[in-house]
Design a protein that fits this description.
The protein is mainly alpha-helical. Helices cover 92% and strands 0% of the residues. It has one domain: Helix Hairpins (Orthogonal Bundle), CATH 1.10.287. It contains two helices and no strands.
Length: 162
């Protein structure tokens, strides 16, 4: 244990922790951005669905008042098909945004796990450094005690009549 430079090891572990914290910050920002994109995609999909609902409500209103010709009804059907295509595209975008966000969240979870591991490594290195210091102090105290005993023994032997 005495051959390990604990101060350097603790410093290395702290730098690794700092890097891991930076990665978490970056990944959190990316996850927040992907969440925003997901919300926008879902809002666009809902808007497209509302457009179709409004279209058919207007068509039903026109039919109930007898203001709708066969040509207008055909046009309403064609427009409904176009709205269906827009809804499908919006659904695809929302699904892609959901997948991207899920991936970002997984990446964030992984970087958080690495940060926890790096924090644990720092703590372990600090504990080992403290143990090593404690052991050094204990050895120094033993040496001082041995030196004091030796000095006392030599002083006693020097005073003893020969």
């Amino acid at each position: 244990m005495s051959g390990i430079d604990w101060k350097t090891l603790v410093g290395v572990r702290e730098r690794q922790k700092t890097v891991a914290m930076g990665v978490v910050v970056r990944d959190r920002a990316a996850a927040e951005q992907s969440h925003l994109q997901l919300q926008l995609a879902r809002a666009w999909q809902q808007h497209q669905e509302q457009k179709k609902t409004s279209h058919w409500q207007a068509t039903v209103g026109a039919l109930s008042h007898g203001d709708c010709s066969v040509a207008q009804l055909r046009h309403a059907g064609a427009w409904s098909g176009a709205l269906d295509a827009q809804i499908a595209r919006a659904g695809q975008f929302a699904a892609q945004a959901g997948q991207a966000h899920a991936q970002r969240e997984q990446t964030l979870d992984a970087s958080r796990q690495k940060l926890r591991a790096a924090s644990g490594d720092v703590e372990k290195a600090q504990q080992m450094q403290q143990r090593a210091r404690g052991e050094q102090l204990r050895v120094q105290e033993l040496r001082l005690d041995e030196t004091a005993e030796e000095t006392a023994s030599q002083a006693w032997a020097a005073r003893r009549p020969a």
